[in-house]
Amino acid sequence: MANFAGAAFELELWAFATTSDWTEFTAIRQHVILKIAEIVEAAGTRLAAPTLLTYLASDAGINEEESNRIVHQATELRGSDSFRFPRESRTGTE
């Protein structure tokens, strides 16, 4: 397994073809990919299709004044000890 990707596993498979002809290589590559898909489906499962989620909001969002207030408040909190963990170093050298 190469990686976790959101709610999926990313698998990295390596296959080698002994050809220097690009057209032949792409045909072999396609054959290998389709065979893998057949094996996965024969096992009773499917490969996930890529998805894209788009969130639509109906509110107006935060105006500039409110945004600046929030940034100022967060900056002040970061400078205080409000969110400091026990034995946390502020400089990383303590």
**First-to-last CA distance:** 39 Å
Question: How would a crystallographer describe the biggest sheet?
Answer: 2 strands, antiparallel
- Shape verdict: elongated
Provide the residue-averaged pLDDT. 81
Helix/strand/pairing category: mainly alpha
**What's the total helix number?**
2
H-E order: EEHH
Number of strand segments: 2
> What is the percent of helical residues?
25-40%
Q: Hey, roughly how much beta strand do the residues contain?
A: 5-15%
| Adjacency order of strands in the biggest sheet | 1-2
Which stretches are low in confidence, meaning pLDDT under 50 for 5 or more residues running?
none
| Rg result | 26 Å
Label this structure with key terms.
mainly alpha, two-stranded antiparallel sheet, 94 residues, single chain
Question: What does the model show?
Answer:
It contains 2 helices and 2 strands; from the N terminus they run ββαα. It has 94 residues and is mainly alpha-helical. The chain has a domain at 3-42. A two-stranded antiparallel ribbon has the order 1-2. Strand 1 and strand 2 form a beta hairpin. The longest helix is centred in the middle third of the chain and has 21 residues, at 22-42.
Write the layout of secondary structure elements.
Layout: E1 3-5, E2 8-10, H1 22-42, H2 64-79
Antiparallel strand pairs: 1-2
Give a brief rundown of this model.
With 94 residues, the chain is mostly helical.
